[in-house]
Write a structure and sequence with these properties.
Blueprint: H1 2-20, H2 25-35, H3 37-59, E1 63-72, H4 83-86, E2 89-101, H5 104-172, H6 178-213, H7 240-262, E3 266-277, E4 287-296, H8 304-371, H9 376-408
Antiparallel strand pairs: 1-2, 2-3, 3-4
Length: 413
């Protein structure tokens, strides 16, 4: 019985540890990608296009239909439809087979159109995935910033409360004035309020992160530091964002080829067999077969072919304009992001240098506090400077992560 009891306690502790296990950025990104309905939609679109490809092939195979056509046109005293046209009664029960003839080049061109459509969807899916990764990472970084602020301020509060206990004893011994103790106590209360604000903000940002990833969870979870480093970026023409321009160019060429195929002669074969009768004479002998061919040769359509080529020419000009604009903006944006990254690192370095002096000052004041020689307003000011310096470092570190996230957005090939 005792063994069972300790085993249950072990399972309970293990489950608590699992729930308290902190999550990292990759956990959220992978979950967000798996839950994204838009990415699943792209996958389904590609599957649907494969079905269209099979339907296209099936459409050029022989098509066989059973057709029943029955007509009765009564006449009375020379009133009614002309019997020479209607035969009075028409009774047709036939099996009709048709076959469209198409060249291998035409078929291949239509299949290529579907393949290019799937390529375009694949590119859109990869870009959407990059957008989702960037959005999740940005929200994760924001939540992590609040978590860092909460932890840091909580650590400072613990130290302040230890010093408050010392200050209280010294105040009771009249080493410090009551006003000095109250001033320090107000500073502690302000620190407690700051911690509460950061805790609430962290919960809100974490909830927004879960919502973005499609996670149904309202529990309080800790998150690890985002493991972000600047990736090596491809040149503009090698990136996934440029591939869409290449695919669009191939689509335009494919459409031009299809226009040519559409204006070539079209040949259809047909054959039928069955029963076709007007019951006018020896109806039992009206079983038979027939076969034929239809040929359509385009002669004149009001210059629509030229109009279609003009539309493709306009589409190509538009494509080239967007392509050139992207190449220019790509280089400029990457350069700006790296410039911002360097500026943020300089600010962080300066703040770290200042923090060393502030920490030295606080440590000196802490020792003077124990001996009753510290000037309380100066000590409170030093604590404020310490908090400001740490806040600057945290905020700029978070901004640095955000810039790295923006840079890495462009690393997809």
């Amino acid at each position: 019985m005792r063994r069972i009891f300790f085993y249950c306690i072990f399972l309970l502790i293990s489950s608590i540890r699992v729930e308290a296990q902190e999550k990292n950025l990759n956990d959220y990104i992978n979950t967000g990608i798996n839950n994204s309905p838009l990415l699943k939609d792209y996958t389904n679109q590609k599957l649907s296009n494969l079905i269209d490809s099979m339907r296209l092939l099936a459409g050029y195979k022989p098509q066989v239909n059973a057709i029943s056509s029955n007509t009765y046109a009564p006449s009375y005293k020379n009133w009614g439809y002309d019997g020479a046209i209607t035969n009075g009664v028409n009774f047709a029960q036939q099996v009709v087979a048709t076959q469209r003839l198409v060249s291998k080049e035409n078929m291949a061109n239509q299949q290529e159109a579907i393949r290019l459509l799937n390529e375009s969807i694949s590119v859109s899916g990869k870009i959407t995935e990059q957008d989702l990764k960037r959005s999740i990472a940005a929200q994760y970084i924001t939540a992590y910033g609040n978590w860092q602020q909460f932890q840091f301020n909580q650590d400072v509060l613990k130290l302040m409360k230890k010093e408050e206990a010392i200050l209280k004893q010294l105040t009771e011994k009249s080493v410090y004035r009551q006003t000095d103790y109250l001033s320090f106590l107000v500073t502690i209360q302000q620190q407690e309020l700051t911690i509460t604000q950061y805790r609430v903000q962290y919960k809100n940002e974490l909830a927004a992160l879960n919502y973005l990833c499609g996670i149904k969870d309202t529990s309080y979870t800790t998150i690890a530091a985002p493991a972000l480093q600047v990736d090596v970026l491809p040149d503009a023409e090698s990136s996934i964002f440029y591939q869409q321009f290449n695919i669009d160019s191939l689509k335009i060429k494919n459409s031009a080829s299809q226009i040519e195929f559409n204006y070539k002669p079209k040949v259809n074969l047909y054959a039928d067999g069955g029963y076709l009768s007007s019951f006018a004479e020896q109806a039992y002998k009206n079983f038979g077969v027939s076969a034929g061919v239809t040929i359509a040769v385009p002669i004149y359509d009001g210059k629509q072919k030229k109009m279609q080529y003009n539309k493709l020419s306009i589409a190509e000009q538009t494509r080239q304009t967007y392509r050139d604009y992207f190449k220019t903006q790509y280089q400029q944006q990457i350069a700006q992001l790296f410039q911002q990254l360097n500026s943020l690192q300089e600010i962080i370095n300066q703040a770290n240098s200042q923090l060393k002096y502030v920490e030295t000052l606080i440590e000196a004041n802490r020792k003077l506090l124990e001996t009753g020689e510290v000037h309380m307003p100066d000590y409170i000011l030093a604590i404020g400077n310490y908090l400001n310096a740490k806040n600057i470092i945290t905020q700029n570190t978070i901004n640095k992560y955000q810039i790295i996230n923006q840079i890495n957005y462009w690393n997809r090939k």
